[in-house]
Amino acid sequence: MTAQVKHYIDGQFVLGQGQTQITVTNPANNQPIALINAATEAEVETAIASAKLAFKSWKEVPVSERARVMLRYQHLLKIHHDELATILAQETGKTFDDAKGDVWRGIEVVEHACNVASLMMGETVENVARSIDTYSYTQPLGVCVGITPFNFPAMIPLWMFPLAIACGNTFVLKPSEQDPMTPQRLVELFEEAGAPKGVLQLIHGDKTAVDILLRHPEVKALSFVGSVAVGQYVYRTGTDHLKRVQAFAGAKNHCVIMPDANKQQVINHLVGASVGAAGQRCMALSVAVFVGEAKTWIPELKAAIAKVKPGLWDDKEAGYGPLISPAAKARVIDLITQGIEEGADCLLDGRDFAVAGFESGNWIGPTVFDNVTKDMVIYKEEIFGPVLSCMHADTLDAAIEIVNASPYGNGTSIFTACGAAARKYQHEIEVGQVGINVPIPVPLPFFSFTGWKGSFYGDQHAYGKQAVRFYTETKTITARWFESDIEIASSPNMTIG
Ligand code: NAD
């Protein structure tokens, strides 16, 4: 049965009037599971107008009451954790455990948003001059927007709207059109948590909807997560229209494996971090740089990766699911083919993989290349598939040089038993999130998600204190009170009113 995806505009769940229909498919067999009527321009306008109106009253709601909405939301998300993960797994193809992780990492951000009063505290200095004090407040901006990708349909919307709204803003969410049902359920639960009408709006669509949001004068700040090309476009267009923009983009994450590392741990970690979630993670480790004799572990690594079997979301034995779409699959197959043609050694080729009974799905088996070089397309492009590229370096310095030459800077890891090597790596590496014997170093929400270079455009990052700065303006007050007025105020002849 095909469901109809709903927008949430001005406090109502509506089907949408748009003539453009988008079909949401099950990636395991490409059968339709839901239909979207993309939002019309008028619907996007209504959503923004409603968010603008709601801002007037929402910003006056005391911060502790706003926090209580987040507390109720966090509680509801936990109650509905399995249900959300099931919806998410069915529309993305992720395994159930992976889908639960996607939801959980979002819940953690909502927990963080419950602490909004402390996060919004300003600064004070008494007596900056005689009888003069200076103090600052953080105040919300107005209507904020989130544009999110397909690969974390729970976590990434939850990176954005809970903190923005807890800070007193109102929010318009435009999630990926490839898996819109998880965000729809997140919004239903937010309403159930007691968020007033208009505070959160949900509109579905593609570039057409994004283009209106990017240019709309009432939109004050815009958070984007997605591919490099679209991220650059969103950043340029949004800032050109004088908005605050944070754009998280693509990645090519390297790990460096020193010969003194714990071999078994390296192999275990690399299996999950490279091909887990079909490699469709912005923090996936897609390049492994083996230093010196560590390269002798590659055959064992390949054997471990070869054991990972893709499968259906509810198959407990499945290592990962299908890619999101036939286009994504075709792109990854094309890149693997180019890698072979360019002369990389393809140790494991996943191009012909299919799950029995689901041959029409977007499957790709785990794939491993060795002797990849910096000039190859499979090295330069973000593959976003279950493909690991192995490279070699003679020294740690040479490995650092490889990583720092990459235009991306989302995440990286070093595996070593040597503290000095780890410290040198963390200090010299030009990447925003560094793991030491930790394969996917995604910071918890009290830190921020701090990608660098071509993986991020903007300055304040997602969640943590930086997100609060992104979604607020600082007001600095300098106040002077005259002691002589105290006598007047306490005089019996003074009348008030
Ligand atoms: P995408 O860029 O195709 O889509 C992201 C959003 O932009 C969607 O909502 C989509 O509707 C919209 N969009 C698509 N094309 C557009 C256009 N031409 N103009 C305006 N809007 C457009 O990304 P995706 O394929 O959904 O997600 C995968 C990408 O996201 C990967 O590159 C991955 O690395 C990246 N990603 C980055 C991070 C990070 O934190 N850096 C996190 C997750 C995903």
- Percent helix range: 25-40%
| C-alpha termini separation | 68 Å
Strand composition percent: 15-25%
Q: Helical segment tally?
A: 17
Sheet bearing the most strands, described? 7 strands, mixed
- Average of pLDDT: 97
**Strands in their spatial order, largest beta sheet:** 15-16-17-14-13-19-20
Which stretches of 5+ consecutive residues score pLDDT under 50? none
What does this molecule look like?
The chain has 497 residues and is an alpha/beta fold. It is 38% helix and 22% strand. The strands form six sheets. Strands 15-16-17-14-13-19-20 form a seven-stranded mixed β-sheet, sandwiched between helices. It has a six-stranded mixed β-sheet with strand order 10-9-8-11-12-22, with helices on both faces. A hairpin with a 6-residue loop joins strand 4 and strand 5. Helix 2 packs across helix 7 (181-192) and helix 3 runs antiparallel to helix 7 (181-192). The longest helix has 18 residues, at 41-58. The mean pLDDT is 97. It binds nicotinamide-adenine-dinucleotide.
Briefly characterize the structure:
Keywords: NAD, Oxidoreductase. The chain is of the alpha/beta class and 497 residues long.
